[in-house]
């Protein structure tokens, strides 16, 4: 916990940030992450040398670019948190880092499209939250993509941000969210960024090491526990991402649904490992995944509150 912020005020700020997200959702205009993304593009243009460029020096340039973008924002957030009104600043920073309401809105839109039999609309809307080609997906493919995105973004846009907030206040939430954004922008292993994006990808892996496993455990506790733990243990390691693997596998097991399989990315067909066990994905599984994330969020806040009370009486 931050030394200048007692546990109970920190949890109160977390609750305020979650309620702000629920009330307001993501800013529709002047979203800080949109501006951050534009800055990241400019920093990449100024620092990356070649595509892919030199294996060592472009990695070093990528790390320098990451520090230039993230460090000033984190230091500013830490300064804000130390002011007399720091609890309010922290709540706003967590609100800006969270994406729970946006995730729920996107998921409900896709589930509603499928329930109404509007496959074209479902393909369009799922394309807003996944990077794969959605133009030829059938109903099961749309539902599978949506469930995978809800589970993975449950970690990236909800639990990961909340974890680092509870560790380091608003500065922790800013650190996590900006690192996650740079991983999404620079971390792809394409010819242009295979070296330059190395630092962004590795830092995001480290920051997600604990939150991803706590997210997987949350899914297991709130869903089909035995199935979730078995899928996590037996299937997670086959997934390419060390952190997405436990989240997707445990989430699929908790929902008793089959995920993974073939997906088209940038014109290339990729065969990803099958995870989960049970039914093929449908609209009901999208809503079940959203409910899993929602219940998990309130479970985390309840546990944080109980821990804060225990610490205050220790």
From TrEMBL:
Species whose genome carries this gene: Sulfuritalea hydrogenivorans sk43H
UniProt lineage: Bacteria, Pseudomonadati, Pseudomonadota, Betaproteobacteria, Nitrosomonadales
Example of a GO MF term: threonine-phosphate decarboxylase activity
Family to which this protein belongs: Belongs to the CobD/CbiB family.
Membrane-spanning ranges: 63-81, 157-179, 297-313
Predominant cellular place of this UniProt entry's protein: membrane
Record's protein name: Cobalamin biosynthesis protein CobD
Cleaved signal peptide residues: none
GO biological process, one term: cobalamin biosynthetic process
Role, per record: Converts cobyric acid to cobinamide by the addition of aminopropanol on the F carboxylic group.
Pathway annotation from the record: Cofactor biosynthesis; adenosylcobalamin biosynthesis
Entry GO terms, CC: plasma membrane
Membrane topology according to the record: Multi-pass membrane protein
Domain of life assignment: Bacteria
One Pfam family cited in the UniProt record for this chain: CobD_Cbib
Localization per Swiss-Prot or TrEMBL: Cell membrane
InterPro entries named among the record's database cross-references: Cobalamin_biosynth_CobD/CbiB
The entry's keywords: Cell membrane, Cobalamin biosynthesis, Membrane, Transmembrane, Transmembrane helix
Entry-linked PANTHER family: COBALAMIN BIOSYNTHESIS PROTEIN CBIB (PTHR34308:SF1)
């Amino acid at each position: 916990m931050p030394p200048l912020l007692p546990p109970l005020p920190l949890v109160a700020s977390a609750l305020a940030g979650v309620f702000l997200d629920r009330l307001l959702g993501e800013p529709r205009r002047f979203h800080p992450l949109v501006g951050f993304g534009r800055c990241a593009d400019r920093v990449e243009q100024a620092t990356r040398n070649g595509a892919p460029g030199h294996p060592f020096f472009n990695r070093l340039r990528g790390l320098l670019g990451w520090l230039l973008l993230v460090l000033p924002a984190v230091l500013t957030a830490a300064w804000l948190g130390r002011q007399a009104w720091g609890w309010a600043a922290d709540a706003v920073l967590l609100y800006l880092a969270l994406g729970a309401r946006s995730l729920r809105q996107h998921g409900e839109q896709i589930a509603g499209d499928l329930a109404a039999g509007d496959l074209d609309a479902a393909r369009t809307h799922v394309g807003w939250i996944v990077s794969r080609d959605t133009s030829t997906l059938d109903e099961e493919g749309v539902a599978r993509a949506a469930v995978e995105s809800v589970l993975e973004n449950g970690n990236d846009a909800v639990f990961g941000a909340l974890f680092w907030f509870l560790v380091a206040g608003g500065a922790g939430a800013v650190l996590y969210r900006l690192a996650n954004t740079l991983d999404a922008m620079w971390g792809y292993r394409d010819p242009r960024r295979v070296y330059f994006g190395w630092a962004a990808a590795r830092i995001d892996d480290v920051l997600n090491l604990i939150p991803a496993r706590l997210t997987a455990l949350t899914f297991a506790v709130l869903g089909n526990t035995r199935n979730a733990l078995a899928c996590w243990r037996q299937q997670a390691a086959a997934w390419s991402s060390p952190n997405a693997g436990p989240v997707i596998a445990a989430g699929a097991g908790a929902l008793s649904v089959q995920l993974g399989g073939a997906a088209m990315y940038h014109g290339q067909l990729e065969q990803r490992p099958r995870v989960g066990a049970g039914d093929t994905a449908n609209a009901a599984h999208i809503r079940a995944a959203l409910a899993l994330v929602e219940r998990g969020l309130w479970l985390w806040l309840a546990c944080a509150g109980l821990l804060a009370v225990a610490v205050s009486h220790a």
